[in-house]
Amino acid sequence: MEKLGIAGHSIDSRVGLHAPGPFPHLARMLSLVTIFSGFLGAGILVATPLGAQGIAGTLVQTETGAPIEGASVVLLNRSGDQVDWRLTDASGRFGFPRIQAGTYLLRADRIGHASVLSDSIMVEPGVTTVYRLETPVEAILLAGIDVTSSSRCELRPGRGASTAAVWEEARKALEATSRTTDLGVYRYVIRHYERELDDRGREVRSEQSRIQRGVMANPFLSLNVEILLERGFMHSDGDGFVYYAPDADVLLSDRFLDSHCMSLTEGEGEAEGLLGLSFEPTENRGVPDISGVLWVDPEDAELQWLDYRYEFLNVPNSDRLGGKIQFYGLPNGTWIVREWYIRMPLLEATLGIDQQTRLIGLREQGSLVLSVNNLQGDLVLDSGAGIIEGVVLLPEGSDPVVGVVVLLDDSTRVTTDEDGRFRFTALAQGYHGLRVFNPVLDSLGLSAEPVFFEVSAGEVTSASLRFSSIQTVLTEKCGPVERPGFEGILTGFALDENGDPLPGARVSVAWEEFEQQGGTFGTVHKVLTTSELPDDALFLVCGLPRDRAVDLTVEWNGIESRIDRFQLSRALRVSRRNITIRGGR
């Protein structure tokens, strides 16, 4: 089936596969629907037009005030029905412009964390209501759940039960996948393939593939759940049989949940270490159905993939028929189907009066997402290389830092955009160090230490960095000022006459003070000495006077430098001065 349209209309293309052999009508593939769309926007705050009303808000951590990016914020009416949905941006912002006046609630869904519900929010005509929604930092712990405690298959598991807790996390990922489908914000490069396998599904007998490129709402879309539950997951179309798989909308639907029960299972083999949420039909309704397992990582509660198989088929060895759907969450909160396949039967008639059929092979058809770009052309996902994507924030609070340089491995640099975001693409697998470049701190020898992130091919690593101001670094290094007038800080390097560092050296700063001792006033000699310097021989001395001269010396291996007398800057709290030993090596 093809529906073609001009620009601004959608293009819907379905691809089917018929099995060869004496029963060519026995297998056809799940419909692969590609939707081309020009719809833009995901969780973007839009200005409210004059005479309209809306809600503009931010989602932050309760304990720290840090913004939360990529969380789902759901707008509910006073009855609890879902009205709209948004993703938070890098600054934790979300917005619902042009809504009807009335009373609303906000629910924040964040994978791996408990959902939070706002107080009632009254939206008055012509007014944009600003709301700050807070959510705890503490994560939900799925690790350690005893699967035997929820071995019974439960229909709509009760609140607080282990099965319900795992389903709640899987639900968040499925709902985000469904919403990403509606947004249509990505340009995909996808490899579609068809394979013929042996009857065990272990040996590939033949394979062919093709590459598809285009802007798609979602490269994977199933039939309407009402049709699937009425007619089953395998249909006869007069020319053969079509096998269907569930998409996110199907798994989330009330009709599917009411006709399937759930239980917990422990992962083995490929799924070892994962927590499985199994589902199966509650009864044989006389049509082909499915059972399966949603695999969840108990450490971060993220949905990994779905294994499923067909039930109630009149086909030999039907337990080998089914498929896999791999889900993938991007740092901005959108979710996609990364890879999927379906396996269908290749059958052959047996000879004899009582003619039977036997399974002689499997036909597998699937797709793999090779790369994803957003509509602005930025690379979002690359299956051959890694990506680091993140945000730079101020030392305190949730405000992004615009226009600062982020260094990757002290060599590659990018500048943060208007949302404080940065991205590094085409990265080799392994650990990479990131730091925010502050030229003033670098000139003082106080560069921030890099933060290391692990990068895997085909994965997007999320990173959050803090911009370190001079004041922040000095507070961390020196602590509070003990005496008024002694706010001066001196930093520099201890060097030999060739300009090489002197690790292990000690730097001393001395000055004279006039103070009272035993009822009389006199001059007192004060000295501050560093401990042995590190390999780069950087020193930092705090609590120095800025209204008089100080004497700077360095001692290394029993050799002491000449006294370098100078006065710290009166205008700046921090002064820099290197100290050198002549003829020390």
What is the secondary structure topology, with strand pairs?
Blueprint: E1 2-3, E2 12-13, E3 54-61, E4 72-77, E5 82-87, E6 93-96, E7 102-110, E8 113-117, E9 121-123, E10 128-135, H1 162-183, E11 186-197, E12 204-216, H2 225-231, E13 234-236, E14 241-243, H3 248-252, H4 254-258, E15 260-266, E16 275-281, E17 289-296, E18 303-311, E19 322-329, E20 335-349, E21 357-374, E22 379-382, E23 386-393, E24 405-408, E25 412-415, E26 421-427, E27 430-437, H5 439-443, E28 451-455, E29 460-466, H6 470-478, E30 488-496, E31 506-517, E32 520-529, E33 538-544, E34 549-556, E35 559-560, E36 564-567, E37 574-576, E38 579-581
Parallel strand pairs: 3-10, 23-29, 30-37, 30-38
Antiparallel strand pairs: 1-2, 3-6, 4-5, 4-7, 7-8, 7-9, 11-12, 11-21, 13-14, 15-16, 16-17, 17-18, 18-19, 19-20, 20-21, 21-22, 23-26, 24-25, 24-27, 27-28, 30-33, 31-32, 31-34, 34-35, 34-36
Helix content: under 10%
Question: What is the tally of beta strands?
Answer: 38
The domain count comes to 4
As a percent range, the share of strand residues is 35-45%
Instruction: State the low-pLDDT regions, or none.
Output: 1-50
Largest sheet: number of strands, sense, barrel closure:
10 strands, antiparallel
- End-to-end span in angstroms? 83 Å
* Shape field: elongated
| Mean pLDDT rating | 82
* Count, helices: 6
Q: Over all CA atoms, what is the radius of gyration? A: 32 Å
**Structural class by sheet pairing and helices:** mainly beta
